[in-house]
Input
Amino acid sequence: MATIKERDRQVIWHPYTPMKAWPEAIAITKGEGAYLYDEDGKKYVDAISSWWVNLHGHAHPYIAQKVSEQLAVLEHCIFAGFTHEPAVLLAERLLDILPGDMRKIFYSDNGSTAVEVALKMALQYWKNKGVKKTRIVALENAYHGDTFGAMSVSGRSVFTEAFTDLLFDVTFIPFPAKDQVSESIGILKEALQKGDVAALIVEPLVQGSAGMCMYSREVLDQYFRVAKKHNTLVIADEVMTGFGRTGKLFACDHITTAPDIVCLSKGLTGGSMPLGVTATTQAIFDAFYEDDRMKMLYHGHSFTGNPAICAAALASLDLLLADGCTEQRKHIAERHAAFAQTLAGHQLIADVRQTGTIIAIELKTDNPSYHHNMRDVLYRFFLEEGIIMRPLGNIIYLIPPYCITDEDLTYIYERIHKLLGQLNN
Ligand SMILES: Cc1ncc(COP(=O)(O)O)c(C=O)c1O
Output
């Protein structure tokens, strides 16, 4: 009988996969805690939370139970003109914990749609008010998703190359690397002074896809303050940083200036099911609260507010807000910090950076890029060692589920040292 892997090859087109170079996918048949098991019974530690989504471990029994209970009562219903308790309760609970003064929750399907909604809200907010502000400012090398609006506000890269001419024009400011902070803020101010900027969008503190590039809370706060001073909306894309990854519940919790719009997905359901949230302030909602139907928000998806998915998110929040989980996140951050010290001054390493539970190790190379040939070598090395770790070019990083054990962290750290030893020879 054909294996899943063989059958897959006949019928599936995988995301972000060069299908000719990587025709074979590993078929996973079971998940448990931080582990995934393939069809041959091989066990892998999921060091990247399955594309940064998983918080509490795979196939978590509590989430499974809550979803199953909800499916038996109400699996789905149209969300225009109708509502249900899981969606309302989730909105209430999110508004309680989100940074700033968020008052309304708009549901969609994933991180990209959460960003699309945020952009549409910000642009139409000004249109509804009769103010001509149509420009978006974003950071160079940003990644906000793969739909056209989200691609437009993402840095131009191999991801967007085929569509460059079709993306809308955005002002990009330099990434605030330590020696570029004042340049970055200066260019932001220049852009804002033109008076046509509807919104600034950023990945707060950590730019994920760019290579886990990190910047300080002071810079983040300054971006927000400068934008607000120029009457520009601030969109915080917390799709990756949300739900504890950076040490606090949200990256924006590290600063005092509040965003106007927050985008969430990934960890929102503990990584169990797809859901996007765009949270916003009363002032933005009010700009759409008009008799004129041309001022409403024309956006929605068939599965908006799906009750079973909201139940998954509610269950994940229960687990996330428990004391044990806070302790675990702190512990992971401490372990990462101690590990970083063991790498200090290593001749193959250009940089080690950490924010909360995320640690990135940038290997030295003359020509860093997403398709760097070192990438496949690293990826294969970790798979052989039973670790799922998808390097971003020459950058290795860990963003583990919070349930990861001390032994597994130690194992991963040791394998990274082993890799460095092999690369040295
Ligand atoms: C910061 C950020 N925004 C948006 C997205 C897009 O999310 P999704 O893949 O769910 O569409 C991602 C995905 O990695 C992300 O990291």
